[in-house]
Amino acid sequence: MIESLLIANRGEIARRIIRTAKRLGIRSIAVYSEADAGMPFVVEADESVCVGPANPAESYRNTEAILAAAKSTGAQAIHPGYGFLSENADFARTVEANGLVWIGPGAEAITAMGDKINARNLMAEAGVPVAPGTHDPAESVEAAIEAANAIGYPVMVKAAAGGGGMGMAVADDETALRKEYEKVTAFAARMFGDGSVLIERYFPRVRHVEVQILGLADGRVIALSERECSVQRRNQKLVEEAPSPAVSPELRARFLAAAVKAGEAVGYRNAGTVECLLDPATGEFFFLEMNTRLQVEHPISELIHGTDLVEQQLRIASGLEPNFDVERPTSGHAIEFRVNAEDPKRFFPGPGKITTWVEPAGDGVRVDSGYGPDTTVTQFYDSLMAKLIVFGVDRADAIAKARAAVAGFQVAGPKNNLPFFAELLENDEFLSGDYDTGIVARMR
């Protein structure tokens, strides 16, 4: 096992990784921006290094500063968390070229899955179901219209280099497609440095289901259970649960087999997630993308499998076998709520200084937080303040615990979306388990 670890991230995921490192006796090293000085993750690490100003480009995405911090502190490995540099293939290569251990998949896998067109073509070749769509970028709006006519409206215009729900738009007809094509290509060029787009069939009623995979040190790829991620606003996840209430044992077997094929197709190592769209009317599912990193929602998989996925990441990177029974059936039900500094009605960001912060506690309640009393949520970073995770013997038990935990989570200062979660937990559609990605829009 490695003995020292630099975490190239901030907030709750940095604290999460530090917690596992401490339990395993691994020296933890935090990097932080000037805006994050004094934040909990900075204080809790065994050592901390400032890597630049608040602007992420000058700090958390500053590869030279992060590598310098790793060298000056004697770090053996770098864990990128999620976001920032976690899916940057060039950074992964540079880390390894400098003799450090990269806690994540190889650069080749990151590159292969980073381009949505290349990824869907690779998956189709591997026998993983993909939605009807283009095999090459739509180089012009005329090409996009031709593809849409062949696929059938409505269609999704999707940035090839996008991710995290960004760079996507729906077009119901040719007029809308002309407009959205220009918008998405411009956005993609500005945000990702690549304006390429693909055209896929859009499913008006669909569920977002994903599978956690682990590429082991011996070359095997295993799939754990699925997660339901259909409670979303603007294609961004708000609530996840595991297992999915929509997935039968037969469908689960197909999901897991497809996820293993996806991982094997790119020689995957370490933790990753195969995301799919599920048509609840037919039971068909289609590959959406592969996230070549640890997911925000990984705790719910940890709870139903009884393992620590960060520990498994570190073991894999160290050349060790998993230390949990990968064949053990899942048990119980887990739900995660992303507690964001945002308006609970329109979900607009609402940063500010935290004047009250009281986390709920109790049997089956876990809080992975990045903040605390007297800390400040700034405009420089993602609005995620904490993840509230509940675990019960079944879905009804988990929901009952969630109601109490949401009611007991006290936050004042910045805006927060806890009132939305209280509303969701009384919503008949959510309670039935028969919901889709349109549930939030219908509630609003």
State the helix count. 15
Computed CA radius of gyration, to the nearest angstrom: 21 Å
The termini sit apart by 49 Å
Oligomer type: single chain
Shape: globular
Provide the low-confidence segments as ranges.
Answer: none
Strands of the largest sheet, in order across it?
13-12-9-10-11-14-19-17
| Helix fraction by DSSP (H/I, runs of at least 4) | 25-40%
pLDDT averaged residue by residue: 96
Strand content: 25-35%
Topology, number of strands: 20
Helix/strand class: alpha+beta
Described by strand count, sense and barrel closure, the largest sheet is: 8 strands, antiparallel
How would you portray this structure in words?
The protein is α+β, with helices and mostly antiparallel strands and 444 residues long. Helix content is 34%, strand content 25%. The chain is built from 15 helices and 20 strands. It has helices at residues 11-24, 40-44, 63-73, 89-97, 107-114, 116-126, 141-151, 174-192, 249-265, 298-305, 309-317, 395-408, 418-424, 428-432, 439-443; strands spanning 4-7, 27-33, 47-52, 77-79, 101-102, 155-159, 168-171, 197-201, 207-215, 221-233, 236-242, 270-278, 285-291, 333-340, 352-353, 356-358, 365-369, 376-377, 384-392, 410-412. An eight-stranded antiparallel beta sheet has the order 13-12-9-10-11-14-19-17, sandwiched between helices. A five-stranded parallel beta sheet has the order 3-2-1-4-5. Strands 7-6-8 form a three-stranded antiparallel beta sheet. A hairpin with a 2-residue loop joins β10 and β11. α4 (89-97) packs antiparallel against α5 and α7 crosses α8 (174-192). The N and C termini lie far apart (49 Å). GO terms for molecular function: ATP binding; biotin carboxylase activity; metal ion binding. This is biotin carboxylase. Keywords: ATP-binding, Biotin, Ligase, Nucleotide-binding.
